Amino acid sequence: DVWTIAVADQVDSTNTQLLSRANSDGLHGLVLAAELQSAGRGRLGRRWQARLGDCLMFSLLWRFDRGLAELAGLSLAVGLALARVLRQLGAPVELKWPNDVLLDGRKMAGILIELSGDALGPAAVVIGIGINLHEPQGVDQAVAALQSCGVAVSRNRLLALLLNELHVVLTTFEAQGFAPFADEWMAMSAHQDQPVRLSFSHGGPIEGVARGVAENGALLVDTAGGRKIFHVGEVSLRSM
Ligand code: BTN
User: Fold this and answer.
1) 154 secondary structure, DSSP code
2) Domain harbouring 209, CATH code
3) Which one, 166, 186, 198, 215, has least CB within 10 Å?
4) Ligand 1 in reach of 132 Cβ (< 6 A)
5) Ligand 1 in contact with 111 (CB < 6 A)?
6) CATH code for the domain in which residue 112 is found
7) Closest of 184, 190, 186, 130 to residue 162, by C-alpha
8) Backbone φ, ψ for residue 181 (5° rounding)
9) What is the ipTM for the molecules in this complex?
10) Which residues are catalytic, by number?
């Protein structure tokens, strides 16, 4: 069995905890789930907040035996693993580049991938996942939950299903990268061939039509100035 699973009542952030373990004795396949996080973190420095029982929150440590030149593709592959499981459960989710899981255009799950150590040597990666099971209080219009599409699943069962699928996907990714997932990813994309607006931390927005993803996970957009390629980290995407 690849997974070693620990469950905590409360931690600052399961990603923070596993990152420190990644730098020391943390085992490949170590999983930490938490009932509550006091300092849950999202992408781009955002916070991730959830009440007790509303959200499945966990992180896992995966030690690749080589350097990870293409982390971008990894985050898309992890999103795909989530979408496969959620669709099997009956939730018609879609993917938003790079790795949000949407239900009716609202965010149902988020993924935060962090790399420990030297990107050139064997890479240890912490993959943090938060999936909303119940609507948050004071309903945020941008947030969706599994409950809202009638799927009732316990957090334990959902975690088990996800870990099985993640094992398959991570093993394939380790051997072949993102390429074998690209077509399936695009078929689940919420924005395929749709007009989108891209915002950047530096510089003005760009508008165009989303044309899917390259074999390394980069986003392809047709703009007035021709086809452009965007990499994770430099840009965020909105429907128009
Ligand atoms: C995002 O969409 O911005 C990513 C959200 C990731 C949240 C999960 S919850 C478990 C793990 N621990 C964290 O602090 N963050 C991730």
Assistant:
1) -
2) 2.30.30.100
3) 215
4) no
5) yes
6) 3.30.930.10
7) 130
8) -100, -10
9) 0.99
10) 43, 107, 238
Helix H or strand E segment including 167: helix 155-176
Q: Which long-range contacts (CB under 8 A, 24 or more apart) does 204-212 make?
A: 207/240, 210/97, 210/237, 212/182, 212/186
Binding residues for biotin are 13-15, 37, 41-43, 107
Return binding residues.
13-15, 37, 41-43, 107
User: In whole angstroms, what is the distance from residue 122 CA to residue 146 CA?
Assistant: 36
Residue 141 CA to ligand 1 center (angstroms) comes to: 19
Separation of alpha carbons 139 and 127, rounded Å = 27
Quick one: residue 110, left, alpha or beta (phi over 0 = left, psi -120 to 50 = alpha)?
beta
Q: Is 43 in the pocket of ligand 1 (CB under 6 A)?
A: yes
Q: What is the pLDDT of residue 223?
A: 95
Q: Ligand 1 in contact with 180 (CB < 6 A)? A: no
Q: Domain total for the chain? A: 2
The closest residue, in CA terms, to atom 16 on ligand 1 is: 128
The pLDDT value given to residue 118: 66
What's the pLDDT tens digit per position in 223-235? 999 999 998 766 6
Binding site membership of 32 for ligand 1 (Cβ less than 6 Å): no
3-class secondary structure, 37: strand
Do 151 and 229 reside in the same domain of the chain?
no
Q: pTM score, two decimals?
A: 0.94
Same-domain check for residues 214 and 126: no
Domain that holds residue 222: 195-239
